[in-house]
Design brief:
alpha/beta, 6 helices, 184 residues, Rossmann fold, globular, homotetramer, six-stranded parallel sheet, 6 strands
Chain lengths: 184, 184, 184, 184
């Protein structure tokens, strides 16, 4: 069987890196979709896991990262999708949400078989995380209106790769439900 | 070359598990040794990494875990060895400090070649962590007066195993320095 | 549910390392037990996985390792427990059968939930492999008459550790069956 | 410092999967480039590691896989790039050459800092392996005339992704040397 979890990738950001401007425009468009997913997942009682860079600060934890992101240049992009009291949180150091993190262990303990991916960056962390989920035999759904890119051309091909080579389903957020592994 | 890091294992505890009483007696004896190690490591500017169970709460972070431990039955065992502002922090889910955690990655980034282990439980997490450090080709030092056990007999044999089969050095805390990989 | 697999640890050996003499005496006593386990597992159609050091030769594979072991000083210790045509084979580089090997992935694909450990060395690879199986939530059975040691005292305590701290069942080979996860 | 290794991906194939025809045409074009790389690497005494699917046969080893590939539909695509006596060999079960394999450990033991990737499939295993090498802080070179694709459009974008997002160098085989980490 297995249940479905929502994975929110790198959305707690201070947007200070060099490609931030292109990314911010895309994030702004993805926010409503992420909001919809959060509503669906929270309503269904499904696990919501924020997986986020630690910005090289290995003391960093949810409170500290969230505070920095809210106080950053684009706190308005963070506030609407901020974690609630039930949210789970995993710190990552590199691109993929699975690399040297306890995420696979956590999903195993929660008996999760299907992950819904949203967040940033479509042609980077989202692509790599879809691969690492597929390689671990998890079912992958990508919420196409809830992922943000830097390079629109690469992002389009990244989505095609996820669909054709990683067996990912591409779906709009409003159609994605969290009631069970077979829902969609 | 590589530097030396101090690894403080599972010392942020609420001591609510069933073997807590035997453990608490041993922890009380280990506290001065851990204090000495913290003083040496902090004085030398060496990395100090607290690796700690998350008690099944995947939101848990340094602040939350520390607060719970300080407010627990034996806050007096936590307060003297609490992390300072420079301390690094890694959450673990299972016995070994390396299993499904970013510790190996973090130590690699810090160019650490030698780890000094202290904390609890000698015949369990400390033993397993010594093995997992040795298997990763790290040099292991165990601070014999700064580790706490539940079963004294098993702990003695665990220390012998670390020395004979994992190439670990067994040393008293006062003799352990952190100035470089070859110091000791 | 999950099925049961027999894991044969490091039995394809040329016995050229320095502790070989003490080990060989113990291996000789363990051979009948390993034979019984092989008979039970093969009879039940259960997976039998030989996990073996590669002796630093990364070209090494089953044929090459087996040939070297059979031609070594103690080919008589290898011949009775040699892999048959159905045996699976995993090369390891370090102590634990799980460290940087595909064993966990392979067991997952085979839906194995319970592993029966036999082979060498009780207080080293067998102990470490029992830990790494337990940490991965596998059920562990150690065939007490089918494991070989170098140091009898450490081996006895290692078995106690596996039982008390790693939830391992200690059983004689003749009582271990492979018909299902709950058998024993 | 660190040295350079040649990684030959999935070239020992029976070409029986469904996309084989498109792939075979591309492999034929990539063969001379792979030959050049093998010549350069062997001439420099650099490690050459064949990493190959095991086709679900966990007994499979170099001899068995090579034999099946040579006897397959396109043995002529295997013979010119077959491993020599010095070649190293790692079996993989899934897409990336690093996932659940000992490759990272092996490269660490050989002090390899830079990997040259060739083989198949550009927009799949080569892309994923480039990512997994980059995430492990290895320097990546992709031999653009020595990789084979199924979908030319996806392959082109995959190469752009490796260059822009994984810091990979794209080079023709004839310009790639193996004398040291800084050569190229």
């Amino acid at each position: 069987m297995g249940s479905t979890a929502l994975i929110v990738i790198d959305m707690l950001s201070t947007y200070e890196h060099e490609d931030a401007d292109a990314l911010v425009r895309s994030v702004r468009k993805a926010l409503p979709g992420i909001g919809t997913l959060l509503e669906h997942a929270r309503g269904a009682g499904a696990p919501v896991v924020y997986v986020n860079d630690n910005f090289g600060r290995w003391r960093s934890h949810l409170g500290e990262i969230l505070e920095a992101a809210l106080a950053g240049r684009h706190g308005d992009l963070v506030e609407p999708i901020a974690p609630d009291d039930q949210a789970l949180f995993v710190v990552k150091a590199r691109h993929s949400v699975f690399y040297e993190t306890p995420l696979a262990y956590l999903l195993g303990q929660l008996d999760v078989q299907r992950v819904v991916l949203c967040g940033q960056v479509t042609e980077q962390c989202v692509l790599y995380s879809a691969l690492d989920a597929h390689i671990r035999h998890l079912d992958v759904v990508v919420a196409v209106d809830a992922v943000a890119h830097i390079d629109a051309g690469l992002a389009d091909v990244a989505l095609r790769m996820m669909e054709s080579n990683m067996s990912a389903q591409l779906r709009p957020s409003r159609e994605i439900t969290f009631e069970g592994a077979t829902a969609g």
